[in-house]
Design brief:
With about 130 residues, this protein is an all-beta fold. The protein is globular, with a radius of gyration of 13 Å. The N and C termini lie far apart (about 40 Å). The model has no long low-confidence stretch (mean pLDDT about 95).
Length: about 130
């Protein structure tokens, strides 16, 4: 059974930091790229970042560059999203997802991701 389990969300003040985790099982983890998406109330789900199977070539949406860092530990079948300098507009449900490969042109394409985690809520507020 393929499963992705996102965790680590919570309430944080603006300027604070939070680390999300995505634990995977049921597939050969190091053969796949993992992405993070987020969806705020009333808005469409958007791609935040994606990391290749090897851990290289990460992609980021412009609004989080320099603040968010994606990484993976293939030995633990886990991908992390470290979020720093958080802003209220980062408030959303964050989802991790798996795909076979990602490129610069299609990493944000939701239809290319095969499996999705349940999501974890990040709230940035004073």
């Amino acid at each position: 059974e393929v499963q992705l389990q996102g965790s680590g969300g919570g309430l944080v003040q603006p300027g604070g930091s939070l680390r999300l985790s995505c634990a995977a099982s049921g597939f050969t983890f190091d053969d796949y790229a993992i992405g993070w998406f987020r969806q705020a109330p009333g808005k469409e789900r958007e791609g935040v970042t994606c990391i290749s199977s090897s851990g290289g070539s990460p992609y980021y949406v412009e609004s989080v560059k320099g603040r968010f860092t994606i990484s993976r530990d293939n030995a633990k079948n886990t991908v992390y999203l470290e979020m720093n300098s958080l802003k209220p507009e980062d408030t959303a449900v964050y989802y991790c997802a798996e795909r076979e490969i990602a490129t610069l042109s299609d990493w944000e394409d939701r239809d290319e991701y095969d499996y999705w985690g349940q999501g974890t809520l990040v709230t940035v507020s004073s």
